[in-house]
Amino acid sequence: MSRVVFVLLPGVHLLDLAGPAQAFGTAADFGQPYLLSYVAEQEQVPSAQGLPLIADTEWPELGPDDLVVVPGWRAPTLRGGPELSPAALERLRAHHAVGGTVASVCAGAEALGQAGLLDGRRCTTHHELQDELAARHPRAIVMRDVLFTADDGVVTSAGIASGIDLALHLLAVRHGPALAAQVARAMVVYARRNGHEPQASAMLRHRSHLDDTVHRVQDLIDARYTEPLPLAYLAASAGVSERTLTRLFTRAAGGLTPLRYQQTLRLERAEHLVSRGMTVETAAREVGFEDARMLRRLRARVLF
To answer: Keywords, A to Z (predicted)?
Structure first.
């Protein structure tokens, strides 16, 4: 079971914390349980909304499959805000160094910057704090007007509710788009938001439309993307002709046909598996390609 450790600082925004915690907690309902932990410099942490929170002062043991998330806090400016201790910053660096994922919501990007994890990497934060983040950490590549970024195991999201988008992206990459869609539906959130960031998961990137017919077909592809899914079968499942489905799908999904959408899901999952040490050949078989040649061609065309 993977663990998610939330690092709480004084003035933490409840939604910055509760959104991702709810998403990872809900994943257990669909067969992917996460152990949630909360750590802080002191046992009681005041929140921005006045509700005091209780946290552990000792960090649990972490492995490469675990996540560390720093929720944001109320901060008109980043300067003068709460800071992690040198020991906690070293924890963040050490977890990333062994292959673990470190993430932030909103102002939490400042903590990642203090740890040096934003240097040379794409990142984002709340739109009111982006200029200051760029000034305080000039080696960071601050992306504006995006919901979240993912770069070499460092994942950052914009303001407040975008932490939910970040969590859904991580669930989609780690467990497949169907799981992320199930979690989103259970939470009754709009699962198809994206900020036109290339690192966004395919499930989010090509779901920003309102065509129910296409969403039903995408639900089917999401759940069975490793299987052969002929266009005739997809069209029959949707109750439309093949020609109509192709027309509706390409219009709604940014020009992708159902086959290209399925290939995008396979490629995204294969990239994750390769990043975890799996060979290209094994990853290709795992996601449904008959051999690795197609995967290699797709990887050469697309940069995630």
So the answer is: Signal, Transcription, Transcription regulation
